[in-house]
Write a structure and sequence with these properties.
disordered N terminus, mainly beta, 4 helices, about 15% helix, single chain, Pseudouridine synthase, Alpha-Beta Plaits
Length: about 250
């Protein structure tokens, strides 16, 4: 089903969420700000979520009534931690397309690229990080560490650097080949390149000093681009959505 009868103002979007692009079949890409939830886990969290309406945990979709009185559904295709900004995808009123694109995510046919601002000086301009990560769940929280765990890989490229002797920082591009919980944050920290603002795996003293000097307190991890091909009505659609690097990152370089 087409999403032609829905424009951006009719979607129950959280303040600050922007529509990046639309594609055939009802596929839609948003730019999620840091601090916004991908979805609510309970009704009280609806005002903090991507769409400020009811959400089915079991079905993984939002639902609301549009201005014309019709029931609408948006299937959520991927998630970002609340502190991570950038590209997040949904499908409007098309169960079959949502099912097929979710399968592409599971089968690793989606290319995702992140931008991260890190403390330190990367030792290589481009490289592939290969680690084994241990993922543990403690009291409902996920914690990940390097160890004798599951293989995890990520392509890394340095985009820009500030070679300040007191507090060097670098903007790097990360393209994960695997999708482990907290993978990028842990792989950065493991190489003494903690992500700026990371309150779990980061450099807490450096975070405090930078926040005091600049006012930047957020986790500086951003889903920059998502790209893949999918089929719709007998043809292949080449899809790409890009969310600009946040201004907070660039002002620190």
């Amino acid at each position: 089903m087409s999403d032609a009868r829905t424009n951006d103002t009719e979607l129950p979007l959280h303040d600050g969420v922007a529509v990046l692009t639309r594609a055939p079949g009802g596929l839609i890409a948003f730019d999620k700000p840091a601090g916004v939830l991908s979805h609510p886990n309970m009704r009280s969290e609806q005002p903090r979520a991507l769409l400020t309406c009811d959400y089915s945990i079991e079905g993984e979709f939002f639902r609301w009534t549009d201005v014309g009185g019709a029931g609408r559904t948006m299937w959520l295709l991927n998630r970002l931690d609340s502190h991570t900004s950038g590209v997040i995808l949904g499908v409007l009123d098309n169960t079959e397309l949502a099912r097929r694109i979710r399968a592409l995510f599971r089968e690793k046919h989606i290319r995702k690229v992140y931008h991260a601002l890190v403390f330190g000086k990367p030792s290589h301009a481009t490289t592939v990080w290969k680690d084994r990560l241990v993922i543990e769940k403690r009291g409902g929280q996920v914690r990940t560490k390097a160890g004798e765990g599951i293989p995890s890989e990520c392509e890394m490229k340095v985009l820009r650097q500030r070679r300040d002797a007191a507090m060097p920082v670098a903007l790097i591009e990360l393209a994960p080949r695997t999708g482990r919980s907290h993978q990028l944050r842990v792989q950065c920290a493991h190489r003494r390149l903690p992500i700026v603002g990371d309150a779990t795996y980061g450099d807490f003293g450096a975070n405090r000093a930078l926040a005091k000097a600049t006012g930047v307190k957020r986790l500086c991890l951003h889903s920059h681009e998502t790209r893949f091909d999918y089929e719709h009505e007998g043809r292949v659609v080449k899809f790409a959505a890009t969310a600009p690097t946040p201004a907070e990152f660039l002002k620190l370089l």
